[in-house]
Specification:
The protein has one domain. Helices cover about 35% and strands about 20% of the residues. By secondary structure, the chain is an alpha/beta fold. The radius of gyration is 18 Å and the shape is globular. It has six helices and seven strands, in the order H-H-E-E-H-E-H-E-E-E-H-E-H. The strands form two sheets. Strands 1, 2, 4, 5 and 7 form a five-stranded mixed beta sheet that branches. Helix 4 packs parallel to helix 5.
């Protein structure tokens, strides 16, 4: 049986990770939510917030261009031989998040860790109708490497770019519904 002191020492590791995120030492942004546990205490949980413009920015920087969104990111170029690359989404975002955040700290819906996808800007991407295929590949890689199937929640603009994609849920960043 562990003492409260041992549990407190373990819990103190969490602020170190959150400082690393806020200091920019990891590229996976995080969204924090608070849940109640059965003992009626607050528990903070973290979800991956994938700032999707960052993939386009990093791709352009890595290929010797300025830190900008031109040329746009090609969602169909999984191999990264042109203007895209799966690695910018998975290796530099999703994989880092799941390798860094312990399972017990992840926000979950129906037992699945949550991933929010930020805005799908039409000018930032080519082959936008490949968004659903990209998400399927990201989920498969996460399942393979970490044994979990993420609950993916894209910003609603992604559905305008890939009408065939069926997300787990959506959110509206720019015009959220307001209860009357």
């Amino acid at each position: 049986m562990t003492s409260r002191r041992t549990e407190a020492k373990k819990a103190n590791r969490w602020p170190y990770w959150s400082r690393r995120v806020s200091d920019g030492q990891t590229s996976a942004a995080a969204a924090v939510a608070t849940q109640w546990d059965l003992a009626r205490t607050y528990i903070h949980k973290v979800a991956l917030f994938d700032d999707t413009t960052s993939e386009a920015l990093r791709k352009n920087r890595a290929t010797g261009r300025e830190w900008g969104l031109v040329p746009p990111f090609d969602l169909a170029d999984f191999a990264g031989t042109g203007e895209g690359g799966f690695k910018y989404f998975y290796d530099q975002q999703w994989k880092r998040f799941f390798a860094t955040v312990p399972d017990r700290y992840r926000l979950k819906v129906n037992g699945r860790p949550v991933v929010f996808m930020w805005h799908g800007g039409h000018a930032w991407y080519t082959n936008q109708s490949m968004f659903g295929a990209l998400i399927r590949e990201l989920r498969a890689a996460t399942q393979r490497d970490f044994g979990v199937d993420p609950f993916v929640i894209p910003e609603e603009d992604w559905l305008k770019l890939d009408a065939n994609y069926r997300p787990d849920a959506i959110y509206d960043w720019f015009e959220p519904a307001v209860a009357a």
